[in-house]
Amino acid sequence: TGYGYGWFLRDWHGHQVVEHGGNIDGFNAQVAFMPDQHIGFALLTNISASPLGSQAMEAVWSNLVGLSDAEISLKAATTATAAPSDASGPAVAPDKEVGKYVLAVAKMTFEVLLKEGKPVLVIPGQGTVPLVSVSGRRYKLGGPVPDGFFLTFRPAKDDAAASEAFLEQPQGNVVLVKEKAQLYAGPMTVEDLMRREVEALGGESTLKARRSMMLRFDIAMEDQGITGNGTEWYDGPGRHAQTMTLSAAGKRIATMRDYCDGKQAGAENSFSQSETKTGAKLSDEVIDAALWPALEWKTLFKSVTIKKTDKVGGEEVYVVEKQPEKGRSITEYVSAQTFLLVKREVSGADEAYSDYRTVDGVKVPFKRVVTAPSGTRNTTTIRQVRFNARPATSVFEPTGAVPASDALSTYR
Fold first, then answer.
1. Residue 310: is it exposed, middle or buried by C-beta count within 10 angstroms (0-12/13-18/19+)?
2. Could you tell me the CA-to-CA distances from 258 to 238, 353, 407 in Å, in that order?
3. Average pLDDT, 10 consecutive residues per value, the chain (412 residues)
4. How many CB atoms lie within 10 A of CB 373?
5. Distance between CA atoms of 373 and 380, rounded to whole angstroms?
6. Which residues, at least 6 apart from 52, have a Cβ–Cβ distance to it below 8 Å?
7. 29 near 42, Cβ under 8 Å?
8. Model pLDDT, residue 73
Protein backbone atom coordinates (compact mmCIF):
# COMPACT_ATOMS: atom_id res chain seq x y z
CA THR A 1 0.00 0.00 0.00
CA GLY A 2 1.27 3.45 -0.94
CA TYR A 3 0.22 6.94 0.04
CA GLY A 4 -0.30 10.03 -2.06
CA TYR A 5 -2.13 13.36 -1.67
CA GLY A 6 -3.84 12.12 1.48
CA TRP A 7 -5.10 8.86 -0.07
CA PHE A 8 -4.02 5.25 0.37
CA LEU A 9 -3.07 3.67 -2.97
CA ARG A 10 -3.09 -0.07 -3.60
CA ASP A 11 -3.52 -2.69 -6.26
CA TRP A 12 -6.64 -4.85 -6.30
CA HIS A 13 -6.15 -7.75 -8.73
CA GLY A 14 -4.54 -5.47 -11.31
CA HIS A 15 -6.80 -2.47 -10.70
CA GLN A 16 -5.60 0.59 -8.82
CA VAL A 17 -7.73 1.50 -5.80
CA VAL A 18 -7.61 4.92 -4.14
CA GLU A 19 -9.12 4.80 -0.64
CA HIS A 20 -9.24 6.17 2.88
CA GLY A 21 -11.16 5.27 6.00
CA GLY A 22 -11.70 7.14 9.23
CA ASN A 23 -13.33 6.76 12.60
CA ILE A 24 -14.06 8.74 15.73
CA ASP A 25 -16.39 8.20 18.68
CA GLY A 26 -19.53 6.62 17.28
CA PHE A 27 -18.75 7.09 13.58
CA ASN A 28 -16.85 5.10 10.97
CA ALA A 29 -16.39 5.75 7.25
CA GLN A 30 -14.77 4.04 4.25
CA VAL A 31 -14.45 5.78 0.87
CA ALA A 32 -12.73 4.33 -2.22
CA PHE A 33 -12.46 4.70 -6.01
CA MET A 34 -11.39 2.37 -8.79
CA PRO A 35 -10.55 4.92 -11.52
CA ASP A 36 -10.08 2.56 -14.46
CA GLN A 37 -13.54 1.08 -13.87
CA HIS A 38 -15.18 4.46 -13.15
CA ILE A 39 -16.73 3.18 -9.94
CA GLY A 40 -16.64 4.36 -6.36
CA PHE A 41 -17.65 3.10 -2.95
CA ALA A 42 -18.66 4.81 0.31
CA LEU A 43 -19.97 3.29 3.53
CA LEU A 44 -20.90 5.19 6.70
CA THR A 45 -21.55 3.27 9.93
CA ASN A 46 -22.68 4.31 13.40
CA ILE A 47 -19.89 2.58 15.33
CA SER A 48 -16.42 3.73 16.36
CA ALA A 49 -14.58 1.01 14.44
CA SER A 50 -15.76 -1.81 12.21
CA PRO A 51 -14.39 -4.21 9.56
CA LEU A 52 -17.68 -3.87 7.67
CA GLY A 53 -16.27 -1.19 5.34
CA SER A 54 -13.42 -3.35 3.99
CA GLN A 55 -15.63 -6.46 3.87
CA ALA A 56 -18.40 -4.71 1.94
CA MET A 57 -15.92 -3.01 -0.38
CA GLU A 58 -14.36 -6.37 -1.21
CA ALA A 59 -17.82 -7.73 -2.03
CA VAL A 60 -18.63 -4.73 -4.23
CA TRP A 61 -15.38 -4.94 -6.20
CA SER A 62 -15.74 -8.72 -6.60
CA ASN A 63 -19.29 -8.43 -7.96
CA LEU A 64 -18.87 -5.35 -10.16
CA VAL A 65 -15.39 -6.07 -11.51
CA GLY A 66 -15.09 -9.79 -10.89
CA LEU A 67 -12.24 -12.20 -10.21
CA SER A 68 -10.81 -14.84 -12.47
CA ASP A 69 -11.59 -18.50 -11.68
CA ALA A 70 -7.95 -19.00 -10.67
CA GLU A 71 -8.10 -16.08 -8.25
CA ILE A 72 -11.35 -17.37 -6.74
CA SER A 73 -9.82 -20.81 -6.19
CA LEU A 74 -6.66 -19.32 -4.66
CA LYS A 75 -8.67 -17.05 -2.36
CA ALA A 76 -10.80 -19.97 -1.15
CA ALA A 77 -7.73 -22.09 -0.46
CA THR A 78 -6.04 -19.26 1.44
CA THR A 79 -9.13 -18.63 3.55
CA ALA A 80 -9.49 -22.32 4.35
CA THR A 81 -5.97 -22.52 5.75
CA ALA A 82 -5.84 -19.16 7.47
CA ALA A 83 -7.42 -20.18 10.77
CA PRO A 84 -5.10 -21.90 13.25
CA SER A 85 -5.85 -25.39 14.46
CA ASP A 86 -5.93 -26.29 18.14
CA ALA A 87 -2.18 -26.81 17.99
CA SER A 88 -2.19 -24.20 20.73
CA GLY A 89 -2.94 -27.10 23.05
CA PRO A 90 -5.73 -27.99 25.48
CA ALA A 91 -7.69 -25.35 27.32
CA VAL A 92 -6.09 -23.75 30.36
CA ALA A 93 -7.63 -21.71 33.16
CA PRO A 94 -8.53 -18.22 31.84
CA ASP A 95 -6.48 -16.53 34.56
CA LYS A 96 -3.35 -18.06 32.99
CA GLU A 97 -4.01 -16.03 29.82
CA VAL A 98 -4.23 -12.73 31.72
CA GLY A 99 -1.55 -10.24 30.77
CA LYS A 100 -0.47 -7.59 28.29
CA TYR A 101 0.05 -8.53 24.62
CA VAL A 102 2.04 -6.24 22.35
CA LEU A 103 1.69 -5.61 18.61
CA ALA A 104 5.12 -4.02 18.23
CA VAL A 105 4.80 -2.88 14.62
CA ALA A 106 1.78 -0.72 15.53
CA LYS A 107 3.03 0.19 19.03
CA MET A 108 -0.23 -1.13 20.48
CA THR A 109 -0.71 -3.03 23.73
CA PHE A 110 -3.76 -5.25 24.19
CA GLU A 111 -4.65 -6.53 27.65
CA VAL A 112 -6.45 -9.68 28.76
CA LEU A 113 -8.25 -9.30 32.08
CA LEU A 114 -10.78 -11.22 34.13
CA LYS A 115 -14.09 -9.46 34.65
CA GLU A 116 -16.48 -11.19 37.03
CA GLY A 117 -14.34 -14.30 36.56
CA LYS A 118 -14.58 -14.29 32.76
CA PRO A 119 -11.84 -13.27 30.28
CA VAL A 120 -12.14 -9.99 28.39
CA LEU A 121 -9.88 -8.24 25.89
CA VAL A 122 -9.09 -4.53 26.25
CA ILE A 123 -8.52 -3.23 22.69
CA PRO A 124 -6.62 0.06 22.45
CA GLY A 125 -9.01 2.80 21.36
CA GLN A 126 -11.99 0.45 21.14
CA GLY A 127 -12.86 -0.54 24.69
CA THR A 128 -13.40 -3.94 26.31
CA VAL A 129 -14.96 -7.00 24.66
CA PRO A 130 -15.72 -10.47 26.06
CA LEU A 131 -13.70 -13.51 24.99
CA VAL A 132 -16.00 -16.47 24.28
CA SER A 133 -14.36 -19.89 24.45
CA VAL A 134 -14.47 -21.88 21.19
CA SER A 135 -12.14 -24.81 21.90
CA GLY A 136 -8.74 -25.33 23.43
CA ARG A 137 -7.17 -21.92 23.93
CA ARG A 138 -9.10 -20.34 21.07
CA TYR A 139 -11.66 -17.60 21.79
CA LYS A 140 -14.15 -15.63 19.74
CA LEU A 141 -14.36 -11.89 20.29
CA GLY A 142 -17.90 -11.23 21.46
CA GLY A 143 -20.22 -8.29 20.90
CA PRO A 144 -20.12 -5.51 19.92
CA VAL A 145 -17.32 -6.88 17.69
CA PRO A 146 -18.86 -8.44 14.53
CA ASP A 147 -18.29 -12.06 13.53
CA GLY A 148 -14.94 -13.14 12.15
CA PHE A 149 -12.60 -12.11 14.99
CA PHE A 150 -10.78 -14.80 17.01
CA LEU A 151 -7.93 -14.83 19.53
CA THR A 152 -5.85 -17.97 20.02
CA PHE A 153 -3.31 -18.27 22.81
CA ARG A 154 -0.29 -20.47 22.11
CA PRO A 155 3.39 -20.98 22.93
CA ALA A 156 5.65 -18.49 21.17
CA LYS A 157 7.22 -20.03 18.07
CA ASP A 158 10.73 -18.87 19.00
CA ASP A 159 10.43 -19.58 22.74
CA ALA A 160 8.21 -22.41 23.95
CA ALA A 161 8.37 -21.08 27.51
CA ALA A 162 6.87 -17.76 26.40
CA SER A 163 3.32 -17.07 25.18
CA GLU A 164 1.75 -15.20 22.30
CA ALA A 165 -1.73 -14.64 20.92
CA PHE A 166 -2.81 -15.06 17.29
CA LEU A 167 -5.47 -12.47 16.39
CA GLU A 168 -7.59 -13.39 13.37
CA GLN A 169 -9.47 -10.54 11.74
CA PRO A 170 -10.99 -10.00 8.29
CA GLN A 171 -8.52 -7.24 7.45
CA GLY A 172 -5.50 -9.42 8.27
CA ASN A 173 -4.11 -11.66 11.00
CA VAL A 174 -1.43 -10.54 13.46
CA VAL A 175 0.62 -12.03 16.29
CA LEU A 176 0.61 -10.37 19.70
CA VAL A 177 3.57 -11.09 21.97
CA LYS A 178 2.85 -11.47 25.67
CA GLU A 179 4.90 -9.26 27.96
CA LYS A 180 6.93 -11.25 30.46
CA ALA A 181 6.10 -10.52 34.08
CA GLN A 182 8.86 -8.63 35.84
CA LEU A 183 9.57 -9.58 39.43
CA TYR A 184 10.13 -6.62 41.72
CA ALA A 185 13.27 -7.05 43.81
CA GLY A 186 13.63 -3.58 45.30
CA PRO A 187 14.00 -2.55 48.94
CA MET A 188 10.43 -1.21 49.30
CA THR A 189 7.75 -3.57 50.69
CA VAL A 190 4.03 -3.02 50.13
CA GLU A 191 3.63 -2.15 53.81
CA ASP A 192 6.40 0.43 53.56
CA LEU A 193 4.94 1.93 50.39
CA MET A 194 1.42 2.24 51.83
CA ARG A 195 2.83 3.82 54.99
CA ARG A 196 4.82 6.35 52.96
CA GLU A 197 1.74 7.12 50.83
CA VAL A 198 -0.33 7.81 53.96
CA GLU A 199 2.42 10.08 55.31
CA ALA A 200 2.61 11.95 51.98
CA LEU A 201 -1.13 12.61 52.03
CA GLY A 202 -0.95 14.13 55.52
CA GLY A 203 -0.48 11.35 58.04
CA GLU A 204 -2.76 8.71 59.53
CA SER A 205 -4.16 10.82 62.35
CA THR A 206 -4.92 13.73 59.98
CA LEU A 207 -6.70 11.48 57.47
CA LYS A 208 -8.74 9.71 60.12
CA ALA A 209 -9.89 13.08 61.47
CA ARG A 210 -11.26 13.94 58.01
CA ARG A 211 -14.31 11.67 58.03
CA SER A 212 -15.93 13.05 54.89
CA MET A 213 -15.03 15.20 51.90
CA MET A 214 -16.96 17.39 49.49
CA LEU A 215 -15.48 18.46 46.15
CA ARG A 216 -16.84 21.00 43.70
CA PHE A 217 -15.32 20.73 40.25
CA ASP A 218 -15.37 21.76 36.60
CA ILE A 219 -15.05 19.22 33.81
CA ALA A 220 -14.05 19.55 30.15
CA MET A 221 -14.71 16.75 27.68
CA GLU A 222 -12.03 17.94 25.33
CA ASP A 223 -12.85 15.78 22.31
CA GLN A 224 -16.58 16.45 22.36
CA GLY A 225 -16.87 20.20 23.00
CA ILE A 226 -18.71 19.58 26.26
CA THR A 227 -18.10 21.33 29.57
CA GLY A 228 -19.75 21.01 32.93
CA ASN A 229 -19.57 21.30 36.69
CA GLY A 230 -20.51 19.13 39.59
CA THR A 231 -20.25 18.09 43.21
CA GLU A 232 -18.73 14.90 44.64
CA TRP A 233 -19.20 13.45 48.13
CA TYR A 234 -17.30 10.88 50.21
CA ASP A 235 -18.94 10.09 53.54
CA GLY A 236 -17.88 7.08 55.60
CA PRO A 237 -17.36 3.47 54.46
CA GLY A 238 -18.76 2.80 51.00
CA ARG A 239 -20.71 6.06 50.71
CA HIS A 240 -20.04 8.11 47.58
CA ALA A 241 -22.13 10.28 45.27
CA GLN A 242 -21.51 12.59 42.34
CA THR A 243 -23.73 14.94 40.37
CA MET A 244 -22.84 16.74 37.13
CA THR A 245 -24.50 19.21 34.79
CA LEU A 246 -23.18 19.25 31.21
CA SER A 247 -23.39 22.01 28.60
CA ALA A 248 -22.50 22.42 24.93
CA ALA A 249 -22.80 25.38 22.56
CA GLY A 250 -23.92 27.51 25.49
CA LYS A 251 -26.86 25.27 26.38
CA ARG A 252 -27.45 22.81 29.18
CA ILE A 253 -27.70 19.36 27.61
CA ALA A 254 -27.63 16.75 30.38
CA THR A 255 -27.44 15.88 34.05
CA MET A 256 -25.63 12.84 35.40
CA ARG A 257 -25.64 11.28 38.85
CA ASP A 258 -23.87 8.32 40.47
CA TYR A 259 -24.54 7.03 43.97
CA CYS A 260 -23.36 4.31 46.34
CA ASP A 261 -24.19 3.71 50.00
CA GLY A 262 -22.16 0.53 50.45
CA LYS A 263 -25.11 -1.79 49.83
CA GLN A 264 -26.60 -0.39 46.64
CA ALA A 265 -25.17 1.64 43.78
CA GLY A 266 -26.28 2.96 40.44
CA ALA A 267 -26.41 5.78 37.90
CA GLU A 268 -29.21 8.15 36.89
CA ASN A 269 -28.85 10.26 33.74
CA SER A 270 -31.23 12.58 31.93
CA PHE A 271 -30.43 10.90 28.60
CA SER A 272 -30.68 7.19 29.44
CA GLN A 273 -32.40 4.67 31.67
CA SER A 274 -31.28 4.37 35.27
CA GLU A 275 -28.75 1.64 36.04
CA THR A 276 -28.57 -0.43 39.22
CA LYS A 277 -25.18 -2.03 39.86
CA THR A 278 -24.88 -5.46 41.43
CA GLY A 279 -22.26 -8.18 41.87
CA ALA A 280 -18.74 -7.22 40.83
CA LYS A 281 -19.90 -3.76 39.64
CA LEU A 282 -21.26 -3.02 43.11
CA SER A 283 -17.96 -4.20 44.63
CA ASP A 284 -16.08 -1.84 42.29
CA GLU A 285 -18.26 1.09 43.39
CA VAL A 286 -17.70 0.31 47.08
CA ILE A 287 -13.93 0.29 46.53
CA ASP A 288 -14.08 3.57 44.59
CA ALA A 289 -16.14 5.07 47.42
CA ALA A 290 -13.29 4.70 49.93
CA LEU A 291 -12.22 8.16 51.11
CA TRP A 292 -8.68 7.08 52.05
CA PRO A 293 -7.94 3.77 50.29
CA ALA A 294 -4.29 3.92 51.42
CA LEU A 295 -5.58 3.39 54.98
CA GLU A 296 -7.92 0.54 54.00
CA TRP A 297 -5.82 -1.41 51.51
CA LYS A 298 -5.76 -4.59 53.60
CA THR A 299 -9.56 -4.79 53.78
CA LEU A 300 -10.39 -3.47 50.31
CA PHE A 301 -8.10 -5.81 48.37
CA LYS A 302 -7.32 -9.51 48.39
CA SER A 303 -3.77 -8.80 47.24
CA VAL A 304 -1.57 -5.75 46.72
CA THR A 305 1.73 -6.25 44.87
CA ILE A 306 4.55 -3.99 43.78
CA LYS A 307 5.17 -5.25 40.25
CA LYS A 308 8.16 -3.14 39.26
CA THR A 309 9.54 0.37 39.05
CA ASP A 310 8.90 2.42 35.92
CA LYS A 311 8.72 6.01 34.74
CA VAL A 312 5.73 8.26 34.07
CA GLY A 313 6.56 11.53 32.36
CA GLY A 314 10.19 11.15 33.37
CA GLU A 315 9.31 10.58 37.04
CA GLU A 316 10.29 7.28 38.66
CA VAL A 317 7.27 5.41 40.04
CA TYR A 318 6.34 2.20 41.81
CA VAL A 319 3.84 0.13 39.79
CA VAL A 320 1.32 -1.35 42.24
CA GLU A 321 -1.32 -3.91 41.30
CA LYS A 322 -4.39 -4.13 43.52
CA GLN A 323 -6.74 -7.11 43.16
CA PRO A 324 -10.03 -7.24 45.11
CA GLU A 325 -11.83 -10.43 46.07
CA LYS A 326 -14.09 -9.88 43.06
CA GLY A 327 -14.29 -7.20 40.44
CA ARG A 328 -11.70 -5.36 38.40
CA SER A 329 -8.02 -5.09 39.17
CA ILE A 330 -6.41 -1.66 39.58
CA THR A 331 -2.88 -0.64 38.65
CA GLU A 332 -1.49 2.45 40.36
CA TYR A 333 1.71 4.39 39.69
CA VAL A 334 3.05 5.97 42.89
CA SER A 335 5.86 8.52 42.77
CA ALA A 336 9.14 7.20 44.20
CA GLN A 337 9.97 10.77 45.21
CA THR A 338 6.77 12.24 46.68
CA PHE A 339 4.87 8.95 47.27
CA LEU A 340 1.74 10.55 45.83
CA LEU A 341 -0.44 8.86 43.21
CA VAL A 342 0.62 9.87 39.70
CA LYS A 343 -1.49 7.58 37.53
CA ARG A 344 -4.14 4.92 37.83
CA GLU A 345 -5.22 2.31 35.28
CA VAL A 346 -8.62 0.69 35.64
CA SER A 347 -10.92 -1.00 33.10
CA GLY A 348 -8.72 0.14 30.23
CA ALA A 349 -8.83 3.82 31.19
CA ASP A 350 -5.87 5.94 32.32
CA GLU A 351 -6.35 8.47 35.13
CA ALA A 352 -3.51 10.99 35.59
CA TYR A 353 -3.32 13.02 38.83
CA SER A 354 -1.43 16.30 39.28
CA ASP A 355 -1.46 19.79 40.83
CA TYR A 356 -1.44 18.52 44.44
CA ARG A 357 -2.33 21.22 46.98
CA THR A 358 -2.56 21.11 50.76
CA VAL A 359 -6.08 21.66 52.09
CA ASP A 360 -6.62 21.50 55.86
CA GLY A 361 -3.45 19.42 56.24
CA VAL A 362 -4.24 16.97 53.41
CA LYS A 363 -2.67 16.73 49.94
CA VAL A 364 -5.40 16.80 47.29
CA PRO A 365 -4.88 16.46 43.49
CA PHE A 366 -6.65 19.44 41.94
CA LYS A 367 -6.34 18.08 38.39
CA ARG A 368 -7.34 14.70 36.99
CA VAL A 369 -7.17 13.72 33.31
CA VAL A 370 -9.04 10.56 32.33
CA THR A 371 -8.21 9.00 28.97
CA ALA A 372 -10.81 6.43 27.98
CA PRO A 373 -9.99 3.27 25.97
CA SER A 374 -11.42 5.07 22.93
CA GLY A 375 -8.79 7.81 23.35
CA THR A 376 -11.18 10.55 24.49
CA ARG A 377 -9.96 12.84 27.30
CA ASN A 378 -11.90 14.33 30.18
CA THR A 379 -10.16 16.89 32.42
CA THR A 380 -11.53 17.54 35.90
CA THR A 381 -10.36 20.62 37.83
CA ILE A 382 -11.23 21.03 41.52
CA ARG A 383 -12.66 24.40 42.58
CA GLN A 384 -13.43 23.74 46.24
CA VAL A 385 -12.55 21.12 48.87
CA ARG A 386 -14.33 20.84 52.18
CA PHE A 387 -13.75 18.23 54.88
CA ASN A 388 -16.09 17.01 57.62
CA ALA A 389 -19.20 18.18 55.81
CA ARG A 390 -21.85 15.60 55.10
CA PRO A 391 -24.93 15.54 52.87
CA ALA A 392 -28.37 14.21 53.65
CA THR A 393 -28.72 10.42 53.47
CA SER A 394 -30.92 10.77 50.38
CA VAL A 395 -27.86 11.84 48.31
CA PHE A 396 -26.70 8.20 48.38
CA GLU A 397 -30.11 6.74 47.51
CA PRO A 398 -31.32 5.72 44.03
CA THR A 399 -34.36 7.98 43.61
CA GLY A 400 -35.71 11.25 44.93
CA ALA A 401 -32.26 12.35 46.06
CA VAL A 402 -31.65 15.91 47.10
CA PRO A 403 -29.07 17.57 44.80
CA ALA A 404 -25.71 17.46 46.56
CA SER A 405 -25.30 21.23 46.38
CA ASP A 406 -28.45 21.69 48.48
CA ALA A 407 -27.73 18.96 51.02
CA LEU A 408 -24.88 20.34 53.12
CA SER A 409 -24.90 19.89 56.87
CA THR A 410 -21.95 19.70 59.25
CA TYR A 411 -20.73 17.31 61.90
CA ARG A 412 -21.49 18.20 65.49
1. middle
2. 13, 21, 15
3. 85 89 84 94 85 85 76 51 54 87 85 85 83 93 85 86 86 85 81 96 96 96 91 91 94 94 92 87 92 94 91 93 86 96 89 97 97 85 94 82 41 30
4. 17
5. 17
6. 28, 43, 45, 146
7. yes
8. 55
Peptide bond into 144 cis (omega under 30): yes
Residue 314 gets the label, from left (phi > 0), alpha (psi -120 to 50) or beta, of left
Provide the sign of the torsion angle of the four alpha carbons 286, 288, 290, 291, taken in this order. Answer: negative
Q: What is the pLDDT of residue 172?
A: 76
Q: Which amino acid is at 254?
A: A
**Single-letter code of the amino acid located at 304:** V
Who's near 243: CB < 8 A, 6+ residues apart? 230, 231, 255, 256, 257, 403, 404, 405
Count, residues in the chain: 412
Answer whether 184's CB lies under 8 Å from 309's CB: yes
